[in-house]
Amino acid sequence: MARGIEVAQIVHYLEEALGQPPGRRQRQRLRRWARAGQRVRVRHLTVLETRDSELMGRLRSRKLIRRHLGDVLSPTRVALNPAGLPALLQTLRTLGLYAAPPPSLEPTEDRASQLSISKADASLLYMAGLVYRGLGAYVPLPAPLSAELVDALAEQLTPAQREAAEHSAREVLEQVRAALRGYLALPAWEVPGAAEDVLPAIEEALAAGHDLILTYWGAGREQVTVRRVTPYWLEQRKGVPYLVAYCHLREEERVFRVDRILDARPIHGEEGSNSVVKEQNSPTSNP
Q1: What is the DSSP letter of 80?
Q2: Single residue among 33, 61, 94 that ends a domain in this structure
Q3: 171 in a domain, yes or no?
């Protein structure tokens, strides 16, 4: 798991080796093992930090800046793709914001030099390997990818180059996940209510620093979920409002299309702390 091999791919390998699918208890143990292996990670990061969340929200709303941003670490800190750092700094300067670039680090001599490929090719192959491995969460892979090869490619890169390749791989896999869960640039569709009905509650929670209980329609899975979220900010993408928030159900940052939020209720203090929550099949038809 530390090398990024997905549970679905491990199950596929076991099924091939055993000649039959692993039992229910074995799959449950694998999932628990996977969750334990994903709770802690150590990695290099280039971080964009602002003094307040309002400024971060304004920066995130600009397409030329948002394209270089990665994981949200907090309302005022976002990971960056180092490959886009020069362009990002230039864009910030046009807004009257100045930031010094972080110092670069060079790799030491290691076994990766035996690969006899350029750093550009090593970066591309490293990224492709991460994407290939990540696809194992959705489809059985035709052949396992050597962890030693991925490690050798990574060792040939600087920390910034590794981070850039990992950022690009995460972006590709996030687009795959987005397509599967219905987070696409589609026109607004009719649901009971409209974005204008829930925006006041979202804006109230943002202003007061409160969490929200969302009732959300996930078009990709045709399910309604009720979940607790910590809102970060609202942003527009092609004229459609989205809420960026930490989802307590999925335990990660998620982006919610506002016209798919059926209900939003601010909560205070410990109220609703156990409402993290539930999923149910929805009778609503997929548009």
Answers
A1: E
A2: 94
A3: no
Whether 27 is covered by a domain: the verdict is no
Burial class (CB in 10 A: 0-12, 13-18, 19+), 100: exposed
Asked if residue 124 is part of any domain, the answer here is no
- Integer Cα distance of 180 and 98 in angstroms: 39
What is the domain count for the chain?
A: 2
Q: What is the pLDDT of residues 201-255, one digit of tens each?
A: 999 999 988 999 999 887 655 578 899 999 999 988 777 788 999 988 888 888 8
What are 243's strand-pairing partners? 234, 256
Do the domain assignments include residue 199? yes
Q: Whose CA is closest to 250, among 268, 227, 232?
A: 227
Output the CA–CA distances (angstroms, integers) from residue 254 to 31, 174, 248, 249, in the order listed: 21, 11, 10, 10
Measured CA to CA, the distance from residue 258 to residue 125 in angstroms comes to 37
Q: What is the domain range of residue 210?
A: 195-281
Q: 159 pLDDT exceeds 50?
A: yes
